[in-house]
Amino acid sequence: MNDYYTNEDMLAYSGTLIVPIYEEDPVPAFITEALSCDLRAEIRRTSGALTTVHTLGKMQPNILCFVGMGKKDQISYGAAKHALGCAFYAQKQDCGCWIDAAICDALSPEEAARAAGFASIYSTYRFTKINAPHPKELTVTFFSDAQVEASVKDGIQIAQCVNHARQLGNLPSNYLTPEAFVEEARRLAQELSLSIEVLDRNALREMGAGALLGVNQGSGKGAYLITLTYTNAGDAPYTALVGKGITFDSGGYTLKPRTSMSGMKYDMCGAANALCTLELAARRQAKVNLMAVLAVTENMIGPDAYTVDDVLVSLSGQTIEVTNTDAEGRLILCDALTHASNKQAARIIDLATLTGACITALGERYTGAFTNAEPFLQALSDAAKASGELLWQLPLDEEFRQQLRTSTVADLVNAVPNGKGGSSLAAAFLEAFIPEGVEWIHLDIAGPAETNGSASAAKGATGVMIETLNRLLCS
Fold first, then answer.
1. Of residues 81, 166, 330, 347, which has the active-site annotation?
2. Which residue out of 72, 201, 256, 385 is catalytically annotated?
3. Of 50, 218, 351, 352, which is most buried, counting CB atoms within 10 Å of its CB?
4. Is 3 in contact with 142 (CB distance < 8 Å)?
5. Which CATH number describes the domain made up of 160-474?
6. What is the C-alpha separation between 58 and 69, in angstroms, rounded?
7. Average pLDDT of the residues in 272-280
8. CATH number of this structure's domain 2-124
9. Share of the chain above pLDDT 90, in %
10. Single pTM value for the model
11. Is 129 among the catalytic positions?
């Protein structure tokens, strides 16, 4: 719950007040005068630094939480989200936020308000332990003399959809099973009046989605291709968001070591983020035609599980020799990419926690990007910069493609033993399933899909790229 008031009303607010402050700015005169002291030396102003001041009854706000915004010439919407997020993350009770103190030449009133709204939801999110009561949500009161309520609400809506993806990612895999994922997709489709198609094992077998079914063979749970469709741009072509939804990844018979098994519940974050990107577009009533194609299953061991040296026949008809059962994400994605193409998507963006090699190359903060359409990727890169998310293009060329065509029994191998540039090899595999004329971007979110926690966000799934993709799709 949120309230909106003017700066004059702020002086009568009795809770904790978040006060943004830049390195160049003095402490506001009304605060200095009310407290009868010079706080210049006490206030930390580097980005995200917090300084708590108890007013001891000298002002109506009983606590001032100064949050450093850094230098004005270095501020951006993304930097403002982080700095304000640090302040909101530290709050345990209802609080207020003085938006106008964040506004400067480099940060418009609308951007400051959107950043404040986003941070108030994103940074106060906590996953509630299983069977524990849900805590009371914080009430945040926003103060501004500008007409920014709509921007605050927009920031809140973005964060709510991002948090939906985080919540799905944080659920244990015995709670977010493939079947539970299907039910969540159905629930969302009903709520937002979206069309939905759910293809189960029988339907997948009938249509010939052998790559997805191959990965599913070791699981006692189902395999699904879920397609949700949002139409609000007339006869305009569709963009497809294709998501990897491995609800738990054991590695199959190429079994992961114990230390790599923990956290494999997050291997469905690509599907969750694709789903919630479409959700945000629908809630914003964006003028776009969009589909989310989600490949959902587990990768487990069992008497019927697929093994190394097996050959799978994909939905496209191309055959694949399995050289690594832990390279399963690209197998379920290739059938999902073909399904999206068969539904006449003109542009496809896939999201997947696909390769550890991408983390090795870029660390845990950057999304790796690959494309067959440079202008399309440039537009996405611009959207990422404007949203404050980190994106980096990695190479994709003929040498990587040729390494995948070395099988003596199939058209492709799903992985190159001891291959170098693993994330590029995975992207080259996926590219083989993109028809000519379809613009395509592959986003490897293996690094930034989850976090160990930061000054502005709780540990767990992050919902990475949802805001960026919406900025691209809605522009």
1. 330
2. 256
3. 352
4. yes
5. 3.40.630.10
6. 25
7. 98
8. 3.40.220.10
9. 97
10. 0.97
11. no
